[in-house]
Structure formats: structure tokens, C-alpha cells
Write a structure and sequence with these properties.
Blueprint: E1 7-11, H1 15-19, H2 33-44, E2 49-53, H3 54-57, H4 61-71, E3 75-80, H5 88-105, E4 110-115, H6 116-120, H7 122-126, E5 133-135, H8 140-147, H9 155-158, E6 164-168, E7 171-174, H10 186-189, E8 221-224, E9 227-229, E10 259-261, H11 264-276, E11 281-284, H12 293-306, E12 311-317, H13 323-331, E13 334-342, H14 346-353, H15 362-371, E14 375-382, H16 389-401, E15 406-411, H17 419-427, H18 455-470, H19 473-483, H20 485-494
Length: 506
Amino acid sequence: MNRQLDILFIHPNASKKIYQDLSNDYSAIEPPIWAAMLAQHCRSNGFGSQILDCEAERLNYIEAAQVIKDVNPRIACFVVYGQQPSASTQNMHGAVGLADELKKIAPNLRTLFVGGHVAALPRETLKEPSIDMICQNEGVYTISGLLSINNLDDQSQISKVKGLGYKVDGTPVLNEPSIIVAKKDLSRDLPGMAWDLLPDISKYRTAGWHSWSNNTENAPFAALYTSLGCPFRCSFCMINIINRTNPALDIASADSNVFRFWEPEFMIRQFDEIAAMGVKNVKIADELFVLNPRHFLKICEMLIERDYGFNIWAYSRIDTCKPKYLETLKKAGVNWLGLGIENPDQVLRKEIHKDGFKEVRILDIMDEVRNAGINIGGNYIYGLPMDTEESLQTTLDFALENKTEMTNMYCAMAYPGSPLHLTAKKKGWKLPDTYVGYSQHAYETLNLSNDNLTAKQILAFRDKAWMTYHTDQSYLKLLEDKFGVKARENVENSTKIKLKRKLLGD
């Protein structure tokens, strides 16, 4: 008799709801990094593990629920992360929708949720009828501790699993918190990704712009972490909430700002693995790859030695992107750096970064990056607490005058887990009442207002700014001159897709 599978890690699919028609051809389909890491952790501890990637397999709720029922694991673990840390809440839509469908056909199958939103709002998450249990933080030790239990119906055993949340007669209960994986234990307890449990690598595609420097071939695509967390305390960010070891209600991401990284020698073996799979497009998903020189420069040096020809996309803050690093980054295959410009006004930038902020000459850094042959993904935020109509226009004018090869434009959001979310709740600011309301591209998007502007004004300006930038003829010429006509056509076609917005009366 075959032993029952211990755990099935599930990456839900809500791309259509989150990205609207952009999901057809323009949004990335990214390997679920945390699902693959947790599966590898469980396997290394002797537990049978599988992964169901509903997005890559393009499964709807009914199809996915039937697969889960047929597999019949002891635990169905919904891993609720996204392409960026802030995407966790929006991905709750697909996770809860699938869990609801699963409970209809397999009511006794145990569901467990883990992810950024779950860590930020553990009690609220447990109020969902289809969710049986949750992890209060990243969940590594909580999951393996739960799998070590013989009887999942025995509350006396359940109550001893650190970091677990569950229900007793419908009331949420949070156990004693669990520690997170220490830096020294990363390679032992998070020993890479279970690539063999994922669908074929060809099913994953990178964002269109990333592939411009790789002949517009957007697949296959791999993404991985070389570090976890961030040492900074930005008010709009919730990435560090999964590091929480305190269940208090007023704990935010900034209270858990832990930065950990795998040793370069360990990481290079992970790059060796994806190279062997034929991958060229690579996203280093670290919140900040360009941060600790001892870490990222060593990885780059080993990548240079191997000469894999990777087309790498990574992230940096403006004030951590030093000119002396750029040549090495470029030689290693880093063709794209996502730079957190956010706002050209130093006063507004300082307000959101709180601590660790260093004033820099943004244009000088951008010029240095370009001169090194690295393309820039500029990230801007509209609707910061001090923004006015004039400052919104100033931000757009700056972007137009200092064009980058790719530009993301966001509205300020109070993502669950961020300091800004706690502030919003204390001050009674209007927040989304749906999970996808936290998506930047959804019909139900509800961004923050501020003392000067309504949420509607800010969203309308953001959408106008995005369209203005991406239809600008000098920008389109830049793309064609640098990447060819296909890149220009890719952007022109994307601008034909109009996002519908409930807030704007669509």
C-alpha cells in the first residue's frame, strides 16, 4: 500500500483577476520560489512533497480542486506569495477561491496557508471558512513541525507546533511563535529549490521587457533568491513581515527587518542547476541584490568564470548602487537593474524611507548605470503622503526627461504588513475590502488618498502617466534603436490594452 503524500504545495492562479487583459501576453509567469524552497525543505527532512502550480498549468478552480482531491495529501498548503512581496495580498484572491472550491469536494482535507499576507494578518486570515491552519511567519519550521505530528485531529499535538495558527470552535488560536531560519542555517534548512517538482521550465516566461536584451525570447525563465529580507524600514514595504516572531497586533514589517543571505559558494550551485536546464532569462528576486558587496560581488565573479550567458534582472536602491560595482555586474550578465527611484523629490523620498536613507544624485547614478551598459527599470510611486497635483506632475516630468528602458508606475498602497497599513488603520483611511483591491492593475484597485488628493485623482493620474510615458515617441525610438522593432511593437501593443477601473467609473 502506497504511503499518503505528506504535503502538496499549491501556487494559486488569479492572474486574470489581478492583471486583467495584460495577463494574456504581458505579465510574467514566474516559478513559485517559496513553494519550491519549502518543498525542498520538506523533502530534505524525509517528508513526501509535491507542487501544483495552477498558474503555469493554467488551471481554474474546479480543475485544480479535483487535482488536489485526487492527490489526497495529508496537508494542502497554499503558498501565497507573488512576483513581488507586495503581491501576496492580491494573490489571496486565487488562493481562497481555490480553497473554497476544494472544501466543496473534499471537506475533510486540511488546508494550510503561508505567505506575506498570512503573516501580516494571521487572525483575519483564519476567519476564512476554507482555511484550517496558517503559518505566522515564513513557515519553514512550522510546516515540518506540523508534518511530524501523527494525528492532525489531536489538538494536544497541534497546540505544540510553534508558529501555527488554527481554529478551536471557530475561534482563531495562535501558538507560540516559531523562529525563522538563521543565516548560518540557510543552506541546511532551505537547501535550494525543488525544480524537478515544478512543471517544465518552458512554461515559465519573463516580463516582455526583460527579454528585449535576449532577442525577445521570454522563455524559459527562472527566478531565485540569493538573500531574504531587507535591512531597511521603508514605510510602504511589507517584505519583512514574514520574519515576524511576535504575534502582537501592532507589529509591522519594519519591526522585523532581518537580512539573510546564502553563502556565494552555495548559490553558485543553484545557478549551475538552472544553466543545466537551458535557462537564459534569470530574475534574482532579492529585494536588494546590490547591497552587501561580499555577497553579490563574489556571486558575480563566479558567474563571470562560468560564462553562462545569462540575461539577469536584479534590484538595487539608488543609494546602494555604487559605480565601482557596475562593471562586475554587467560582466556577470546583469543586463537590467530595477532602481527604486520612487520620487525625484528628496524630501518625499526621505519621508518614505525613514531610516538608512542617504541623499544621492539620482541622475548621476542613472548615468553611471547606463554607461556600464546596464538597462534601467525605473520604479515610481504616485500618491505619497505629501504628494500634490504639482508633485505628481513633477515626478512624471522627471521620468519623461530621464527615460529609462523600462518604467513601472505605482500608486501608493498600504499593503498589509507595512508600517503604512498600520498607520492607515489607526487613522481610519479607506482601505480595499477585497484582496485584489491591493493589486495595481485590477478593476477593483483602491489606492490610498492623502490630505491633498483623492484616491480617484491619484489613480487617474497614474494611469495617464503610464500611457503618456509608453506612447512617447522619443521613448519608442529609444527602444527601437536599442532593442529593435519588436521591442517597440511590444510596448505599442501593450498600450492598446486599457485597464478598467471601478474607482474611475468603468
